[in-house]
């Protein structure tokens, strides 16, 4: 085993799904920012959370004001464009990198057309741990759609989703491995 410094240990919980979080700006335009700290939080009701850097982006402010946001998972075919969004601000962000927005099913915030998985959320709360450099934006899932499903499970072989390790290193979702789980 190799000792890992506590400051670097967070990278051991990798790779993480990459999502473009869309929110609505005060002027009605769409804000889109890439995040890899996105994870499910509750089955009942279905919730997820997004780790957002304190004071950095408009995602948190917009979600709190508009009471909604959309999680658009990133696939290999537009991964570079999604990464480019991190440094682009202002109106027409998506257009500047060659992405487009579409109407969502249940929320007014726009979704990313190119995304093969879209999860619409009603904003619930922001958890601010004062010792942390991030806050947790929590949303209740109100609608979702996926381009390829196998019953109730996403068909990851057809979605080409990307995950983030650290820095410039990304991974494709890997091959399927099955283990028996005892229920009980």
Put the structure in a nutshell.
The protein is mainly beta and 184 residues long. Helix content is 12%, strand content 40%. The strands form four sheets. A seven-stranded antiparallel β-sheet has the order 3-2-6-9-10-5-4, with helices on one face. A three-stranded antiparallel β-sheet has the order 1-13-14, with no helix packed on it. Strands 7-8 form a two-stranded antiparallel sheet.
Largest sheet: 7 strands, antiparallel
Looking at the structure, what is the overall shape?
Answer: globular
Number of E-state strands: 14
The domain tally reads 1
SSE pattern? EEEEEHEHHEEEEEEHEE
Instruction: Quickly give the structural class.
Output: mainly beta
This entry's quaternary arrangement is single chain
**Which runs of at least 5 residues are low in confidence (pLDDT < 50)?**
none
Q: Roughly how much helix do the residues carry, as a percent range?
A: 10-25%
CATH superfamily: Electron Transport, Fmn-binding Protein, Chain A
Kindly provide the name of the CATH class.
Answer: Mainly Beta
Mean pLDDT: 91
Using the 3D structure, state the CATH architecture: Roll
């Amino acid at each position: 085993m190799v000792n890992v410094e506590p400051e670097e240990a967070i990278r051991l919980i990798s790779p993480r799904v990459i999502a473009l979080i869309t929110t609505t700006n005060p002027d009605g335009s769409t804000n889109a920012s890439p995040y890899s700290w996105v994870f499910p939080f509750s089955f009942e009701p279905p919730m997820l959370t997004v780790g957002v850097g304190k004071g950095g982006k408009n995602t948190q402010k917009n979600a709190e004001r508009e009471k909604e946001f959309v999680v658009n998972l990133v696939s290999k075919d537009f991964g570079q464009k999604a990464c480019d969004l991190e440094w682009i601000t202002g109106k027409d962000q998506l257009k500047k990198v060659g992405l487009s927005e579409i109407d969502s099913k249940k929320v007014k915030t726009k979704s990313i057309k190119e995304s093969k998985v879209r999860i619409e959320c009603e904003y619930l709360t922001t958890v601010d741990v004062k010792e942390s450099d991030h806050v947790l934006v929590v949303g209740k899932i109100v609608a979702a759609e996926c381009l390829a499903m196998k019953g109730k499970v996403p068909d990851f072989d057809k979605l080409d989703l990307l995950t983030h390790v650290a820095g410039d290193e990304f991974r494709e979702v890997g091959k399927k491995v099955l283990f028996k789980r005892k229920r009980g």
